[in-house]
Design a protein that fits this description.
- This protein has 244 residues and is mostly helical.
- The chain has nine helices and no strands.
- The chain is elongated.
- The chain starts with a helix and ends in an 11-residue tail after the last helix.
Length: 244
């Protein structure tokens, strides 16, 4: 009877097994975080390069775009390493670790594309265009919005988050363009962000974070409209192009 009481009702091996699983999970997380540290550093570099667009006339953007594309290529290489590790495990087990860094990489790509980067071979610079999620996926060399298999991919939410950040950045660029004496670019930005805003209004967003951030789009659109309106009042743009 005494032996039964001291032996206990729960086998300690159960918890030993759980500790093994915890240790394995921690090891995977550390491996992913090591890769993400590199990606975060590369992302800051890419965005630092792209930020020079705020102090550079449109006609002189080519060297910045070329440098940004090279910096983004470094991010793509690191994202490949991340996907090799992440695809071993269920996607949604660890995706919270990297989704912000993927959003930032996606933002760098769509901003670079808007400025004229990532054009088709031989097509020359095409500034003011929106790269689609499929085009971003091709640049990142990762699948897009996977449903048929569980693997690393770019989600629609990550792409949409990057577009909201793009709108915020273009609102800043509108003001800085005027400082540079470029009165045409605010008009282009105004039409572009209005079109994006209209597109977001079509969406029925289920993601709470995405829905809250999308509510801020209208304020950034108004910032751009105010700049264009001010330029129009000062007769710095043609009347037929300066309307809001």
């Amino acid at each position: 009877m005494a032996d039964q009481k001291t032996s206990g009702m729960v086998d300690p091996a159960v918890f030993e097994h759980l500790q093994t699983k915890i240790d394995e999970d921690a090891k995977v997380r550390e491996e992913i975080k090591d890769i993400l540290q590199t990606l975060e550093r590369q992302g800051r570099n890419a965005q630092s390069i792209l930020s020079r667009a705020h102090s550079t006339p449109s006609a002189q953007l080519a060297p910045i775009i070329e440098a940004a594309e090279k910096a983004i290529k470094d991010e793509v290489d690191t994202i490949y390493d991340l996907s090799e590790v992440a695809s071993i495990y269920p996607y949604y087990k660890y995706n919270g670790l990297w989704t912000r860094d993927i959003q930032n990489a996606c933002f760098a790509i769509v901003l670079c594309g808007w400025l004229g980067g990532f054009g088709a071979e031989g097509s020359g610079s095409q500034h003011g265009r929106l790269l689609t999620i499929e085009e971003v996926g091709q640049i990142l060399n990762v699948p897009v919005n996977l449903k048929e298999r569980d693997a690393f991919h770019l989600t629609i939410e990550e792409y949409l988050q990057s577009l909201i950040t793009l709108i915020e950045e273009l609102a800043r660029l509108t003001v800085n363009s005027v400082t540079l004496g470029d009165y045409q670019r605010p008009l282009q930005i105004s039409q572009f962000v209005k079109d994006l805003h209209a597109g977001f209004q079509i969406l029925n967003l289920k993601n709470d974070s995405l829905r809250r951030r999308s509510d801020s789009i209208k304020y950034n659109v108004k910032k751009v409209e105010d700049v264009v309106y001010d330029l129009s009042l000062r007769n710095l743009v043609p009347k037929d192009n300066g309307g809001t």
